[in-house]
Amino acid sequence: MSEHQILELPALAMRQGPTRELYSFAVDGKQLHQIAQVSRLGRSDTESIVGYQRPEVISHIAEIRNYVESAGAMLPNAIVVAFDSRLTFRPLQETTRSNPSAHGHLLIPVGDNDSCALPGWIVDGQQRAAAIRDASVNSFPVFVTAFITDSVAEQREQFILVNSTKPLPKGLIYELLPSTDVELSTQLQRKRFPAQLLEQLNFDPRSPLHRTIQTPTTPFCDPRSASKGKGSKPGTFQGFIKDNSVLRMLENSLNDGALYRFKPRGDGKADTEGMLQHLFAFWEAVRQVFSESWNLPPTKSRLTHGVGIISMGHLMDAITDRFRNQGTPTVNQFAGDLETMKPLCSWTSGYWNFGPGMQRKWNEVQNTSKDIQLVANYLLVQYKRLVWSAPA
User: Fold this and answer.
1) Other beta carbons within 10 Å of 172
2) SS3 call for 92
3) Closest Cα to residue 276, out of 203, 379, 170, 191?
4) What burial letters (b/e) apply to 105-115, b meaning 16+ CB within 10 Å?
5) How is residue 326 annotated by DSSP?
6) Most-buried pick from 178, 199, 242, 305 (CB within 10 A)?
């Protein structure tokens, strides 16, 4: 097909709010991929977030495809598509305050093999669209709800809003949060700033946690095949620390720990760079002091496990408090206190000695609230016993 062809479809336009217009129409699902594509989540060469959709779930698509091929199949939910400004609507009547909807025709450019020329992006319903595309049926009409925007950020925001109440991977939502400004649920609003810090920790080359946090765009990578991945280094694990563990560590410190002092000042702005420098210094010290336990997945080291990341976050807060009269501790100051604690830590072998009758093998501590509290309390008690009284 020529990219200059126009698909003209009957549609209902509805004005929503003072400036926005939504369009509802039916189209053969087999034609949907000629007018809309999927924006895959990834990272650009500069580590900026691009796209927003997770990879296709093959098993889920297969289930929907089998259903579409069955007798009496019905998919009543509309697919949500964002079109760029090439979409035009030719009304048969005007909308008014008393009648906010109008019948008319949508004029949609039809793409050819060059997907970049397509005017639409599937915001919600990519699995259904893929199933219909692959199904052994001649046609399968579906409803589409559409809006017009040239902003990828707005597409991303609608994707989050549509999917935040569905069983979507939390990591995908958290990775998209820093690139959105839309008002979200209270729970997601609270996650937005920690997610911004996590993004900087994971993608700032200055960070000792650079590309170590597992997210949809930095999946776990084994060093034996690391040279095949973008930006990976042979011999180095990547994406081996779970994002949720880092988020919990950041949230704890922001609530009542070391990062709390960097929260919004009189001008209402948080000292984000100060927070990052603090985090960079501490985790660089951790990497240096516990080098033999660091570049390993959680199955091989409890330091990179949830129990280690969150417990060490509490220790960061305690060390920071000891140096409170000197400002932010340096890497060397963090490392000096951590060296004293090193013999007490059994991250990769041996036993944790929590007290009489409370020995636990190194890999028996788990990512549970009870075990995290057990390890964190042990480290904090020993830190105050061995280090706290020493001159800062």
Assistant:
1) 19
2) coil
3) 203
4) ebebbbbeeee
5) G
6) 305
The values of phi and psi at residue 158, to 5°, are -65, -35
- Residue whose C-alpha is closest to residue 285's, from 333, 323, 340, 213: 333
Q: How many Cα atoms sit within 13 Å of 350 on the Cβ side?
A: 11
Tens digits of per-residue pLDDT, 149-177?
888 778 777 777 766 655 556 787 788 78
CA angle 199, 200, 202 (to 5 degrees): 65
Nearest residue to 303 via CA among 317, 320, 319, 289 = 289
Q: Render 39-51 in DSSP notation, one character per residue.
A: -B-EE-TTS-EE-
> In this structure, are residues 38 and 57 in contact, taking their beta carbons and an 8 Å threshold?
no
| The model's pTM | 0.64
Q: Give the count of alpha carbons within 13 A of 60, CB side only.
A: 10
Q: Which two tokens mark 90? A: 């030719």
What is the four-CA torsion angle of 300, 301, 302, 304, rounded to 10 degrees? Answer: -110
> 3-class secondary structure for 262-319?
HCCCCCCCCCHHHHHHHHHHHHHHHHHHCHHHHCCCCCCCCCCCHHHHHHHHHHHHHH
Burial of 305 (0-12, 13-18, 19+ CB in 10 A): buried
Direct distance between the N- and C-terminal alpha carbons of the chain, in angstroms, rounded to an integer: 73
In terms of pLDDT, which residue wins out, 59 or 348?
Answer: 348
Place of tokens 């925001």: 157
Residue 133, classified by CB atoms within 10 Å of its CB into exposed (0-12), middle (13-18) or buried (19+), is middle
Q: Give the model confidence (pLDDT) of 120-145 as tens digits.
A: 888 888 889 999 999 999 999 999 99
The b-or-e profile of 339-376 (16+ CB within 10 A means b, else e) is eebeeebbbbeeebeeeeeeebebbebebeeebbebbb
Strands 6-16 and 20-28 turn out to be antiparallel
Place of tokens 């707005």: 154
How many C-beta neighbours within 10 Å does residue 101 have? 14
Percent of the chain clearing pLDDT 90 (strictly above):
57
Residue type present at position 338: L
In which band, very low, low, confident or very high, does the pLDDT at 3 lie, cut at 50, 70 and 90? very low
